[in-house]
Amino acid sequence: MIIRSASFIKSSPALKQCPVSSKPEFGFIGRSNVGKSSLINLLTGWSKLAKTSGQPGKTRTINHFLINESWYLVDLPGYGYAKVSARLSEGWRKAVIDYIKNRKSLVSLFVLLDSRIAPQKSDIEFMEFLGKSQVPFARIFTKSDKLSPSALAASINKYDTEMLNNWEILPVTFISSVPKRTGREEILRYIEESINNLSNDF
Ligand code: GTP
Ligand code: MG
Question: Distance between CA atoms of 185 and 190, rounded to whole angstroms?
Fold first, then answer.
C-alpha cells in the first residue's frame, strides 16, 4: 500500500471522545516503550507524526491518525508500566479496554512485543483476554535490530512455545525494526488486505 497522506486527527482520553467510527481502524498496543509510536511513524513515513520517547509512558491517550483519507491508525497508551500511579494506570486500562471491546470500527489490533524480552505475563494475559473477547489481533516483534538473527528466532520460539500452552494456532506474526525499516511493507500489505476483505459495513 502506498501512503499518500497521514494526518493526526485527535487525542481522546476515552472511547466516547473518539472520532465518529465511520472508517476502518487498526490499533497499536503493547507494553510501554515497546515501540508503538515509533512503528506508526515508520508505517506512515512521517517520523514525527506520533510522539515517541525513551521514557516509558509517553502516550497517554487514544490517538487517531487518518491515512489516505480512508482509514485510521490508532496509537494506544502502553500497559504494564509500573512507575505511573496505580490510580492513573487503572484509568488508562479502563479506557483502553472499553475502546478495544466497544469500538465498532476496530478491524484488528497489533500487539507489539519487544523481541529482546522473555515472554511477559502481562502480554500473555492480554492476548488471552483478546482471544476470549474475540478481538482479532496480530503480533509484531519489535526492535529486531537489537538481536542477531539466531537470537531473534530463539526469542520468538520461546514466545510461541509459551503461547501454544493456551492457543491451538498462533496469530499472524510480523518482525519490525524502525532503524532498518523492517516489516513496513508486510504490515501495510496486511492492513490493505484486511480492508479489502471487509464487508460493506463501512
Ligand atoms: P509509550 O508511548 O510510552 O507506551 O511507548 P511506545 O511503545 O510508543 O514506544 P516509543 O515508540 O516511544 O519508543 C520507545 C523507545 O524505543 C524510543 O527510544 C525509540 O527510539 C525506541 N525504539 C522504538 N522502536 C525501535 C526499533 O525498532 N529499534 C530500536 N533500536 N529502537 C526502537
Ligand atoms: Mg507511544
Answer: 9
